[in-house]
Amino acid sequence: MKKIRFFPILIISIAVVLFQSCLKEKYNKYLESLGEDSTNVDNRVLTDLKFPTDFDFKTETTVAVQINDDSPNVVYEVYAYSDELIESLDSIAGPLPNKFFERLPSNGSIQETITISSFIEDLFIVRKSNDQVYDFVVPIIQNTASYTYDGSTGKRNISKTEQSKNQFSLDCANVYGQKYYVDLSNYVVTDNGNVNTISNIILPKQGVSAIITATSVDGVELKNRFSLAGAGFSTPIFTFYGFNFWISSKIDTNNDSDGYVEFEMTFDTPVQNLLMHFRSVDASPYKFVGNQHTETLLSGGREFFYDESERILKDTNPRTRARYYRDGYGTVLISATSGTFDKIVWQRIDDPDTNTQNDSNWFTFSEVEVCNDQDGDGVVDSVDEYPNDATRAYAVTYPSSSTKASLVFEDLWPFKGDWDFNDTSIDYSISKIFNASNEVVAIDFDYIVTSDGAGFVNSMAFEIEGLNPNNVSSTDGQILDKAVFELSTNGTEIGQQHTVIPLFDDHSILVNQENRVSVELVTPISNSSLDSAPFNPFLVANGVRDKEIHLANYEPTSLGNSQPNVSGNNSDVDGDYTTENGLPWAINVIQSFPLLQEKKPINEGYLYFEEWGLSGGQNRRDWYKNIEGYRNNAKLKGN
């Protein structure tokens, strides 16, 4: 038995000696290069700065989201109320950025924990129902954002009679049309004098095609042929999937209150309903005149108004552009008066109450899918992110569905390095996947290795506290060739109290490659039992397994050693992964950001890193953002 144990001990001992030798050699070369470097900084040396005790250098915080709403057929979207979102709301582009999740309430509530940038003070929430769509800002108070729907939206209330009239044709949760835009990829435009036509408009889910004919009446001009506006003209208030195009038309009413351009949309097969999306109505209102259909204004910002008796859709404050999503966009539900319709008729008319008019207008359509739940999990297809998989329904992604975080390392731990944080780094996101009962069933890690500034071959893994390794069914996508980690058949590391998921064991061969590691659970678990993203990531330097490099003040895993016996000046004597002055060897930034050039410490490229760190994270919480005066681009890669 002693001989059997002797060889692994001998191998480990040799590995430790070799690692310390390599580490010392790399450290000596680094010190030598600093002495030869004529571009050394003139300002304060980063390693001499004294950071507050126990500061963890976190750029994010967790927030508990609580939404109470027992209304049927209602969906909530939750976003960070950030500069990027405000800019998107003020523009004509979409969908909205920094989305955390889209969710149907379960048993009258939504309870979710999200990880957000520490400088975010509010959440932007969109409530979408079969009656209307509206948005609001909810403050974050003591890491909690709460909202309770009380039946009031601040917009026009739809009468029960009107609601019951349209209810038969409404989808369970897709009345907003975010998924099923018409196909205009093969449209055909013709014109003949005062008649203009756009044809081959396809409703793909129903297999229906349509033609729109515009006719000028009584002196009003249709000033140009129909055309398409680009896919960038999306409706920010709606989440949509894929490209959609807007049909563009220009009219000039010549301030003639009796003249108009009449639009007639005919279908080769009758339909029950359709969603009409519009932008830039302004001083040339829509007047619906077809007798086969009725109209319901679902959303239209703060200024749109629909006169039910006159069937006129108008902008109560033409020409304003304070917020496109409040003013320039809207959606009308077109429903059959009885059974189905094969024609929609509307007019663009002049507003007699104003001397101004807008001759440009864009509109498009999307289908209203009948209530459907293909996988039978209780979540309708229009909201179900996995409509063909009964075990999955939603995903919540860190840092958001449209962004990635950056995880950057210095690999000389426990010796001091150059703190350019580009030895090994990844841009990544983590998606927790939920079933219809809001239990976690899987976790996906999507990542790209963004740097190879190391002299070592480094490995990376995530420890997931709260997840028993035996509750992992399988792990796919790991890239492991160096035998750094000893794995069970389910892809978790052997000998760990909590689940440890290695991603790769040689960062140098993966630079700029997109990869995904997928973890499937045996038994679904509550999200509250899991640690919050980004969990506990760590680097293993040069293949020596117990040399784990963690974020500041994190604990090593069961196999890590935070206080190694090394030859040289150990700068982490207390084993908290920070120097005696509190400087970390690893930082997680909640958004992707440019890396530092070689031997350029992070405070040279990011000019408010010092103020943020020295204040213990109270000041300049957005130090990493691309704001004027925040960066010295000459010290960053790619500049």
The pLDDT mean sits at 83
Number of strands: 33
Number of helices: 6
Kindly provide the radius of gyration, computed on alpha-carbon positions and rounded to a whole number of angstroms.
30 Å
The stretches of 5 or more residues where confidence is low (pLDDT under 50) are 1-18, 30-42, 153-171, 233-243, 322-326
Overall 3D shape: elongated
Sheet-strand content, in percent, reads 35-45%
The description of the largest β-sheet is:
8 strands, antiparallel
What can you see in these coordinates?
The structure is a single chain. The protein has 639 residues and is mainly beta. It has six helices and 33 strands. The protein has helices spanning 2-36, 83-89, 160-167, 324-327, 602-605, 609-614, and strands spanning 60-68, 74-80, 99-103, 109-117, 122-129, 133-139, 144-148, 188-192, 195-203, 208-217, 221-222, 227-229, 246-252, 260-271, 273-279, 286-288, 293-299, 304-307, 312-315, 329-336, 341-349, 360-366, 394-398, 405-409, 424-434, 439-452, 459-464, 472-476, 499-504, 514-526, 536-540, 548-550, 586-589. The strands form six sheets. It has an eight-stranded antiparallel sheet with strand order 8-9-10-14-21-16-19-18, with no helix packed on it. Strands 11, 12, 13, 15, 17, 20 and 22 form a seven-stranded antiparallel sheet that branches. A hairpin with a 3-residue loop joins β5 and β6 (133-139).
Short descriptors:
single chain; 639 residues; mainly beta; 10% helix; 35% strand; disordered N terminus
Blueprint of the fold:
Elements: H1 2-36, E1 60-68, E2 74-80, H2 83-89, E3 99-103, E4 109-117, E5 122-129, E6 133-139, E7 144-148, H3 160-167, E8 188-192, E9 195-203, E10 208-217, E11 221-222, E12 227-229, E13 246-252, E14 260-271, E15 273-279, E16 286-288, E17 293-299, E18 304-307, E19 312-315, H4 324-327, E20 329-336, E21 341-349, E22 360-366, E23 394-398, E24 405-409, E25 424-434, E26 439-452, E27 459-464, E28 472-476, E29 499-504, E30 514-526, E31 536-540, E32 548-550, E33 586-589, H5 602-605, H6 609-614
Parallel strand pairs: 1-7
Antiparallel strand pairs: 1-4, 2-3, 2-5, 5-6, 8-9, 9-10, 10-14, 11-13, 12-13, 13-22, 14-21, 15-20, 15-22, 16-19, 16-21, 17-20, 18-19, 23-25, 24-25, 24-33, 25-26, 26-30, 27-29, 27-31, 28-30, 31-32
